[in-house]
Amino acid sequence: xxxxxxxxxxxxxxxxxxxxxxxxxxxxxxxxxxxxxxxxxxxxxxxxxxxxxxxxxxxxxxxxxxxxxxxxxxxxxxxxxxxxxxxxxxxxxxxxxxxxxxxxxxxxxxxxxxxxxxxxxxxxxxxxxxxxxxxxxxxxxxxxxxxxxxxxxxxxxxxxxxxxxxxxxxxxxxxxxxxxxxxxxxxxxxxxxxxxxxxxxx
Length: 202
Hints:
Largest sheet: 4 strands, antiparallel
Order of helices and strands: EEEEEEEEEEEEEEEEEE
Structural class: mainly beta
Number of helices: 0
């Protein structure tokens, strides 16, 4: 509807007129936003995690917080929120993957899942699973309905950190390690399809 929504490190969510850049509203939170807000068109709500560990739900039209929506992780939320099968999936630097009821932010059992390493990358959907990459370099696929672990990569000791969000298609999940190496993993099994090693400078 001709609007742009922006999260800022100054602790504000802004709604801008797309043509003029005029600020239509701004909402002040308790922490910085390093993420892209996610807009749920069906209920006209913006979701954005912040460095105070909270996931904020704000009415996209008015900029007012959604009544009764209260969630706080034990550390910063540095990644976008995933909406899948009527739930919100959130990762945090506390190492947990959360599934939340979008109406009141209550954690849905059997979540949270403790990954044991900070989660800076956002969760992504791949078919009927949610894929999470941890800072220690491990990628895990969980069934959306049951949270059952479907596969984990690598099966041994991780070689490099993963800080960026994986990209998922119907067939593959793509991840980039801090050493610059890129992997394509089979979405159903986690098996390595190919890898790319960047050329080293002379």
